[in-house]
Amino acid sequence: MAPELTRRRVLAVMGSLVPAAAVAAYPDRPVKLVVALAPGGPADTAARVFAPHFADHLGQSVVIENRTGASSVVGTESVVRAAADGYTLLFGSSSSFAVNPAVMKGLRFDVQKDLKLIGLVSYTPHLLVIRSSLAASTLGDLVRLAKAQPGKLTYASSGHGGAIHLASELFKREAGLDIVHIPYRGGGPAVLGLLTGDVDIFINDASTTVENVRSGKLKALAIAWPKRSPLLPDVPTFAELGYPAVVSSSWFGLAAPAATPTDVVGRLTEAMKPVSASHAYQANLQQLGLEQFALTAEQSAAFIKAEIDKWVAVAKSAGIQVE
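Request: output the structure for the sequence above.
Response:
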């Protein structure tokens, strides 16, 4: 028998051995949310606005633990291998659930088989911005400029093989452009590179880019979502501008180890529902530039599958692979 199959069966047995009384009393101690990305980033921000509301409806404290490394692999794997008792959950991002499986070879786990999605939480659409001095005022201007000077314009990313890199390659593919990738170590340095004029283009989370747009330091040309963002209602979508396939975002969801008992998963799912309906929570999201998912369990599963399929195709066409 293959070692991986053996490990999954062991996890399943471990989950089935959780005493019925423990399930009935769940949760009787604090629940840990593992955020697999750095403190202060979009995933961490989304988790910290979600956690207190979730705790209120779960009836137990919810604590956040940042476990960073390898583009969220370290934190994700720590939850995959945690006890399947509902006390260690993943507050994962699009990197955890869809991008890493598309670009990384040799992952020691399969998120679709080793994690059980409890629900999608929130998202921030991606926004294409350019340095303010670039001679373009619209996406059409940018495309024409790039096509007139193949290989001259540059685009930033927050790291090779990450969600922002793939989102940029999606735009590059759909627009038929020859623009050069300049990877940075994180979103902050990438924004700085744009502000100082070292790079020309950046596709980034709208929530963390909006202030530089409102101040005039950067020019926003298109939002990568099916509808316009309330953050920047005057910025058109890529679809409006002739690129309907350019849809991308940073999104966040809650998951448990796959063998977590059904009753515990049901309790967690039920606690999420009033959070989503809370006006206070919605107001908190709005202040941070985040938007709330409103998907059923079936729609959430379909969304994640579509995301994985999209990023696998983009990674293949762009030749992106992370060892």
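The two ends are 26 Å apart (CA to CA).
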